[in-house]
Amino acid sequence: MNKKRRYFYILIALLAGIVTSFIAYVAFSHSDLSSNIPRVEINIDADRASIIQMIIEQNDVYNTNELREIRWSDPVNSLKITFELPPLDNAGKLRIDFGMSRGNFLIHYIRLKGGHFNRTWKGEALIKDFNPTRHIDSLYVANGTDVRLVAGGPDAFLESNFSLSSIRDELYRHQTFQPDILFFACIIGLFATIIFAYVLLRLNPLKYNHLHLAYVIIFFLFLLAPGIKMLVSPEASYSENRKLTEKPVFSIGRLFEYPKKLTRYFSDNMGFRTALTTTFSYFQFKLFHSSAYPGKVIVGKDSWLYSSDPEISGDYRNQSLYTETQLSTIRQNLEELHAWYAARNIKFYLMITPSKFRIYPEYLPDRIRIKPGENKLDQLLAYMQTNSKVPIVTVHNELIKAKKDTQVFYAHDTHWNFEGGYMGYQQLMKTLQADFPQLSIISPDYFTRRLIHTPNADLSRMLALQSILLNDEWTFDFKEEPPVRPDTPVSYTSVFPFSETKFFRNKANTSLPRLVIYRDSFANLILPFLIHHFSRSVFIWTYEHSLEVTEKEKPDIVIMEIVEYRLDRILEKNPIDFRLP
């Protein structure tokens, strides 16, 4: 190699190192390696799966558009949660919501840091500067510096008694020059220079023909493509009902945890992840008749899909039953709700919707065995029939009979279809008619069936095959335009901000009863039929009963619809407002 070519390669390597240093400095200055990014850090223990949300007050109203949340599916110890603070104008108080229901939390600290501000709250200082809501049963110092928080309802949160605006200048003050970041950037640039120089001097790429160089460039572009895609057009979570893992916050104190968190971040956000996942999942499904994600989805016979997530499938193998104490607790909680509503002249009903495993066990793969005999639902129904007068609506027996003539659940979804939803509506109305005889069931002659194919199957989406494994269903179109319209929404401060709430009004008959239904996703296909029978109906996607909702809506009927694999939720105490003395 001649000197001129050698110097040329060294110059290229130096330029590459300088460019790398510049890019690294700019990137690190705007990344979590920089201490300038304002953020809230919370370190907690929790006794159950739950969620924590952070909301910031803006112009005296909590801005749910800037809501941040973290979920976990098991009890946790010393879980460090980090929320970046958005640059809001007129920022007010800081609000931290603990859980969607009751729970026991141990707060080790709450820390607010960024720019020139860094403060940590523990023990008495935390209790002094953060005010609890009434849905917090107790808040006290434990172990000297920790704070024990016991949530007793769906709206348990801490609210700062200080405004973020008062410390905004310190929080968002950025250093114009950061020597520590520059040092790291120079180290990276030096390594880049050495690597480029070694490769260029060793390989001497100019001696190869243009075709060889093209192959090398294409190969490296292929390797770099996912990273470029991440920068240009980040992935969205189309295949899963969750947020993708957020970029982890770098901390010297947790240096050894950072690579694991960064790996999870890249695993979730890698460029072309959706296309690659779909391709892999499709070959697994078609060639091997198996699930690419066995921890989420079971592939059954005739391409039927089932959830394998315990949060969704529950104890579908019937491995355990309720104890007498648990049965008594469920009865007491339901009777407490029933008595509370009865004292206010409100009728209360419990509706239990069945799981797919109960209605269609025959499509499960042969390797899965369901233990014969009594299960939790059968056990609970028998116990309540003998020991309680709380009205309970079930539909599983009717669906099992009907499936001989029509399909009542989606093959590629967790839920029942419109046929199943209509049968659930019929059973519910038969129970309501005992107390409200003026209500009449909508006849099948009132609507027409229309076959549609929709890419909205939740289990297909988990396999990234939502555009391939569609929901094939008969939807119902009413022959006459119904007099029911969406009604004016009402804001409830006691209902979690992300809980979906729908409002409907029947303007043709304002004398009809008023309805509030606390529910899950199975009520979606009861809703189109049920709304016709009430002057105003409110559907709230939560199991948590709200005194505020009762006072604002003044319902005649309250229904709690719950799918059978969530029945354990009724073991929890009722919200504080609904507990009898």
Brief sketch in words of this structure:
The protein is an alpha+beta fold and 581 residues long. Helices cover 33% and strands 23% of the residues.
Question: What amount of the residues lies in strands?
Answer: 15-25%
The total number of structural domains is 3
Instruction: Note the overall shape.
Output: globular
Number of helices: 16
Structure characterization notes:
- There is one protein chain.
- The protein is an alpha+beta fold and 581 residues long.
- The protein folds into three domains: 1-36 and 174-207, no CATH class; 39-171, Sandwich (Lipoxygenase-1); 321-578, no CATH class.
- Helix content is 33%, strand content 23%.
- The strands form five sheets. A seven-stranded mixed β-sheet has the order 16-15-23-21-22-20-19.
- A hairpin with a 3-residue loop joins β10 (136-142) and β11 (146-151).
- α1 (3-29) packs antiparallel against α4.
- It is globular and about 100 Å long.
- The protein starts with a helix and ends in an 18-residue tail after the last strand.
- The model has no long low-confidence stretch (mean pLDDT 84).
Summary keywords:
alpha+beta, Lipoxygenase-1, 23 strands, single chain, 581 residues, six-stranded antiparallel beta sheet
Please specify the SSE layout and strand pairing.
Layout: H1 3-29, E1 39-46, E2 50-58, E3 61-62, E4 68-72, E5 76-84, E6 91-98, E7 103-114, E8 117-121, H2 123-129, E9 130-132, E10 136-142, E11 146-151, E12 157-160, H3 168-171, H4 179-203, H5 210-232, H6 258-269, H7 273-288, E13 297-299, E14 305-307, H8 310-313, H9 324-342, E15 347-353, H10 356-359, H11 376-387, E16 392-394, H12 396-402, H13 418-433, E17 447-454, H14 458-462, E18 471-478, E19 484-486, E20 501-506, E21 514-518, H15 527-530, E22 536-540, H16 547-553, E23 557-563
Parallel strand pairs: 15-16, 15-23, 21-22, 21-23
Antiparallel strand pairs: 1-5, 1-7, 2-3, 2-4, 2-6, 6-12, 7-8, 7-11, 9-12, 10-11, 13-14, 17-18, 19-20, 20-22
Helix pairs in contact: 1-4
